[in-house]
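Bumping with the actual sequence this time:
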Amino acid sequence: MAAPGENMRVNADRLWDSLMDMAKIGPGIAGGNNRQTLTDADAEGRRLFQTWCDDAGLSMGVDTMGNMFMTRAGTDPDALPVYVGSHLDTQPTGGKYDGVLGVLAGLEVVRSLNDLGIRTKHPIVVTNWTNEEGARFAPAMLASGVFAGIHTQDYAYARKDPEGKTFGEELKRIGWVGDEEVGARKMHAYFEYHIEQGPILEAEDKQIGVVTHCQGLWWLEFTLTGREAHTGSTPMNLRVNAGLAMARILEMVQTVAMENQPGAVGGVGQVFFSPNSRNVLPGKVVFTVDIRSPDQAKLDGMRARIEAEAPRICEALGVGCSVEAVGHFDPVTFDPTLVTSVRKAAEDLGYSHMNIISGAGHDACWAAKVAPATMIMCPCVGGLSHNEAEEISKEWAAAGADVLLHAVIETAGIAE
């Protein structure tokens, strides 16, 4: 068969319908989704994905972390597969597209190849990674991290959710413990298609983000120990206020991030007060500082400064301070050959595009440790994500999937 022409596209309606059907599982309360990892809703979403893959003629493999690998055979029995994927789990108040778009666009690539009668030399594997979000079990990108050898499976199985349930117990409970050894699979290449989760592409009026790098990240979990006391009857000068120490650390994190501009961010999105009562000063505060940068020196410098200044802030208030790194990955440079393939596909298809650095972490960051990898991004309205109001258009979804289709075909090779 001749090489596919520039007019070859995915079925935009079918892709969109699949996104909307998946969104019916684990609905949120404001139009989005709450399909957190290893919940009953996650298990239901997995079964629907499996059904669609069965209908497309894919064979399923599942490893002991619950990662799903759906394979379309290639014509060369010795050729390593081209992997395409992302994740089906969501934040507690997540949108319908974060992660899900990448998995279902991978499926749509296979469906389109079936429609067109195109066989590839390399197999194509559509992947659903377990626990990318890290909302229920920290850290994020947990199962792809085990796959890449960053974490051990024992470490992953022992992760606990806020109710004390472990990852290993919940994976078994929902029935998705596979029999494959994690990381035993070898990749020829890995592609991940994702919404941007930021405002740049929409602001620049670009349809495609050609992702060249991914920011590095540190999650630093602080535990501050003060003294519980009545908020009304305890004199200000006699308080050991862990809440005040937290507030001053948050202001310090803001200062550190601003002094490392451009190309650095820092903030706090999760805080637990104890006893969390209106009229009791907290005896304990636990919160996580999230710092990111594509520049390794900036990332390391920010962490060092925050970890040095926080204890001094606490000491001045008589508050105890400990810190644990609960999530980390270094900045990632994606494979230049695959990046060029994505850019060429966008150009050939006539889609406006620009280079972009991913501000969020993705499974592709760990896949890049074991194989050539890259990402494709589409805009999202207002840059909003990790929010039930997250939105994209059908046209945006299809444009990125078209680019994915062409880049995968180029990489997997058309069988003669």
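The tokens above came from a reply further down the thread. The two ends are 6 Å apart (CA to CA).
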